[in-house]
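cron nightly-structures :: item 1 of 1
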Amino acid sequence: MPGDLRDGRIVIVGASLAGLRAAETLREKGFTGSLTVVGEEPHPPYDRPPLSKQVLLGMAAADTTGLPMRPGPPMSPDLPMRPGPPMRPGLPTRQPLDADWRLGVRATGLDLDGKRILLADGDSLPYDRLLIATGTRARPWPRPEQAALEGVLTLRTRDDAARLADRLAAGPRRVLVIGAGFTGSEIASACRERGLPVTVAERGTAPLVGALGGTLAKLATGLHRAHGVDLRCGVTVTDLRGDDSGRFTGADLSDGDRIDADLCVVALGAVRNVEWLADSGLAAGTHGVACDAGCRAFDMYGIVTDDVFVAGDVSRFPHPLFDYQMLSLEHWGNAVEQAEVAAHNMVTPEPRRRPHLAVPVFWSNQFGVNIKSVGVPTFSDQVVIAQGSLRDRRLVAVYGYRGRITAAVTVNMAKWLEHYQRLIETAAPFPPGPGAADGHPLVTEFPLPSDVPDPKGLSHGPTVALTGHLPDRRLTVVRPAG
């Protein structure tokens, strides 16, 4: 965008939460040029958190989860979602947003030198500045012939949620959920709330262990079993079985057991949508597209670009509160906040650009409890129960690393989250002092190991990936001629 940063051509690849929020912010910041948003799905941007919660419970239809203009935080997880009116076709906002929406078409390549996006329909889009916000997709079952069995589903998109909600409403004899991360646990919770028998298979030692560590994951184990989930931990699903007509009938486990079921939901985590960037020259790999704290993408040699930006689940970015490790987050709030920073920096001269320093926040509703997290629990070696009790399923767990607070998780005590967020932001010492929050002494007298597992030992991928290394890609050394 030579000369005026508020004019020219901007393309956003990714028409979900981060893409929408970036488009709105660009206009709010005074960008008057051409704005194009490309999305692989045919639907206007919609909200994903309700898909594994209210939609599966039949409290809302999948097509009523459209995003409003200027999205705030997700609705309070303590209250049921009130379904709104279906979104009208076309513009995904309540007020006109001056943008060209290219929905239902996939980006297939990026020409950095020519500054063009290649599309699956054969078209290409020139740009002066580009925002990559392609997010993630559900990790499929690794054997395609088994994944294709009728009754084997994943949950990521609006269409996925509609299909799964219909199958749950039909009353399957038993549901098998593979993976006990947040998505798998929420699916299991929805099954039990509907009165459906459900088996959960998890390679790790407990549900949510990859997000909360082994100590607090014991609470999640108790929740599953108290609500009648047939929980199988420390095992893997080795095969999905089907009948002669191609219908899913059950699964074999690594311990030799067999599960008979007529519906299977594969909840093995997410895959970041970076394949279209394979030959682009950007630092794009398994953990996403690497960028600096100002959301500017790195090329494969570690040199920052100035016309390609990244936001949302597909990004990897450094954070000073976590030793500048590269974070990959699958969080609603991160997508919004990073998109706003990226959009601001795309149209702002360098002296006035700002970094993306928001502390990660995540929440989940399952088995009648509200779990909220601030910070990065997996960036820890110790944990202490600061308030409440495990027995009452009402508590605050505070995590620490090298003598400072790095995260807190609340269970049905979300009102204390802001207090602990301030402690994280100010690098307060760990463990917190007695009575730091509510005047009562710490529940656990001494810190316990947080027992964070190696992600390779889990069925589900972590929602926060602390990668600490460059994308796994062999670099080509370029030497000048002569």
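cron nightly-structures :: done
The mean pLDDT is 88.
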